[in-house]
Design a protein that fits this description.
By secondary structure, the protein is mainly alpha-helical. It is 71% helix and 1% strand. Helix 1 (9-17) packs across helix 2 (19-26) and helix 8 packs antiparallel against helix 9.
């Protein structure tokens, strides 16, 4: 059995001063470990959105009526607070799991050889978005679930998903300058798709803010808008996103684009169809909580799929040893 290496006083000081550099000097993760770490952070960023939706849909938004404590006298929920308190406090605890996942991604990225500054910065960007959203979540509670703060809370979560998606993609690429795989016209079409998707998500938060699921059984203010009208606007925007996706798919086939962008666009189209069906079913069945929760999950998956289409429009050379880049993956897929 190998002995434990001696840790000198200098080592201990170095670990305290810069723990990431200390770890990086003694550990080199496998590239796939870095990929898995980034993917774990992305998955947790989606999970925290879904569980946050569960808090609202079960009427547990004020299960812990204050922040950062659960009550004025207790850091945790108490038996007297019942199920609502347990649900709200449980969601708060998941924030620590998310922090752990993001922390693992940061450590793995920092320890990778050669050092990739851009990848590490994407990990830190996730950390600061998580911290900001945790504070915003506390404000949401302190202002009694004001719908505008709830909307901002969800939008910041969408920003976290965006950064996590980019980091996951970058773990499978090199650090060379981006090389476009499609022409300018196609790139512009995709940016229109991204803009329409952002607007779709933003209007979705307004639907939530004006809708019946306030997040608590008490009297909670709603956005002073007609819910039916906002829902119809949301549906129109969804059809615009679907139309742009179908047009992109057709254009990519027409210009004989690489398989990567085409495959990502097809995946987006299928996710959009599933999300659209779910949206109409929940609308005509008076918004059952389970379907609304699934629709929130679908919103995250649509956003990730849109970003993957955007990221598939280019490749970065100097791929890490042993890991095929997007172009190579597309070539293998086309030969299979």
């Amino acid at each position: 059995m190998d002995g434990v290496p001696n840790v000198t006083r200098a080592d201990a000081v170095a670990a305290v001063r810069n723990p990431l550099a200390f770890i990086a000097a003694r550990w080199t993760p496998d590239p796939r470990t870095v990929q898995r770490a980034a993917l774990t952070a992305l998955v947790m960023s989606v999970v925290i959105v879904v569980t946050g939706g569960a808090v609202r849909l079960t009427g547990s938004g004020l299960g812990c009526p204050t922040w950062p404590k659960c009550t004025d006298d207790s850091l945790t929920s108490t038996s007297e607070m019942g199920l609502h308190g347990a649900i709200e406090f449980g969601n708060r605890m998941l924030t620590y799991v998310l922090c752990a996942a993001v922390g693992w991604a940061i450590v793995a990225a920092r320890a990778q050889k050669p050092y990739r500054r851009g990848l590490t910065r994407l990990g830190w960007a996730q950390f600061w978005v998580v911290m900001g959203n945790a504070v915003l979540g506390g404000i949401v509670v302190l202002v009694g679930l004001n719908p505008y703060t709830v909307a901002a809370h969800f939008l910041l979560s969408s920003a976290l998903i965006a950064v996590a998606t980019v980091m996951w993609q970058r773990t499978r690429e090199g650090d060379g300058a981006p090389v476009a795989l499609v022409g300018k016209a196609v790139q512009q079409l995709v940016w229109f798709l991204v803009a329409a998707s952002v607007l779709l998500i933003a209007v979705g938060t307004v639907v939530t803010g004006a809708g019946p699921h306030a997040g608590d059984s008490s009297e909670v203010a709603r956005m002073p808008l007609d819910w039916e009208t906002v829902s119809k606007l949301h549906a129109v925007l969804a059809w615009i996103v679907v139309t742009l996706t179908f047009a992109l798919w057709f254009v990519l086939k027409a210009v004989d684009a690489p398989e990567g962008p085409s495959h990502r666009t097809r995946e987006l189209f299928l996710v959009l169809l599933a999300q659209g069906v779910l949206g109409y079913v929940q609308y005509f069945t008076d918004l059952p909580e389970v379907l609304v929760g699934l629709h929130m999950l679908g919103s995250c998956l649509v956003w990730i799929a849109v970003l993957r289409v955007l990221l598939a429009l280019r490749e970065r050379p100097d791929t890490l040893p042993g890991l095929p880049g997007p172009a190579a993956e597309a070539t293998v897929g086309s030969r299979a």
